[in-house]
Known about the structure:
Chain A starts with a helix and ends with a helix. Chain A has 9 helices and no strands.
Amino acid sequence: MMSIGWSLVETTAQLLEGDRREAVLGDLLEAGENAWQALLGVLSLVLRLNIAEWKSWRPWLAAFGVSLPASFLLMGVSLSVSQGAQRLFSPALEATALGNVLPLLLCKAILLVGWSWSGGYVVGRLSRRTIWISAVLCCSPCLFCLARFRVPSQSRFCLLLFLLPAIWGVCHGLRRTRIRLASMIVFTLTLMLLMAASWNSGGQRWWTPRLWILDAILIWPACYLVAIAWRENHSKRQWKQQKVAI
Amino acid sequence: MLGEFEYLVITAAAGLGDKAYGAAIREEIEATTRRKCSIGALYTTIDRLETKGLLATWMGEATTQRGGRSKRMVRVTAKGVQAAKSFYDAVLRVSRGASWATEQKGTVS
């Protein structure tokens, strides 16, 4: 029967990937180490692997280039979508105003889903082992804003509308779901067109620098996905050419 | 150039030949250096050396002694042999004239 100590070792070892976990636990058993030594060994390995991961630019980009800034901005977009929806279903809304409110709401809702999904995908793909840091950096602003949210007509959870598509994106990123170049180009161009449309309908013009900076933070993950899809497409073509040559 | 621990891992793996895997390499290093070798240091070094193309690893057989868990087998590549040889040569060159190296030479001869 397995002791509590070894159960703890096995649980901690879940932080390691499949094959590595198998080899490490086997080695510890073979060396006849006690549960305490084994636990320290596994913990030291997990820590070292995490530190080694941060030597690359990828987790830094995922955490501080996407998770942290995008969560702030996407909370703002979530609130805007929620307020738009509330306005749409308000009995005071005139039929003439409906034509203005509905397209803008649809535009913002699509942007919200697109930005969140692409951001989530990039985070999942770039920081597989350090995903928990990205998650903490995404959740911290959310908790901060939830605690300070004071709009009587709105539920505070309307700030978190972006989370569902973002988690969906993270799942795809972690599984490294294949993305097609043509689909990604269409997806990114659609987001860009909708961004331009929402700028103009908001009473501001597309050349406003503030809009460029904020929206660049939200759109770059989609552009990055186009680059990934192009690279995958390119390497697949090269591989096929090599196969034909052989 | 290799680090000291990287050299130890490559040399232990080369010495063990077909029987080189995590626990065996660790035991070999501990026995020869009389120093504790942590599993964290060993596996991160194996990963690093594999990324550099100096080692190749694959999952091997499972034994009852290991609770039915597979071994991570290790093989030193030609590039790894070359890197270890360069490190060894550098140690020999830099040690020329050092008192402990000459004393040892005197004892042997």
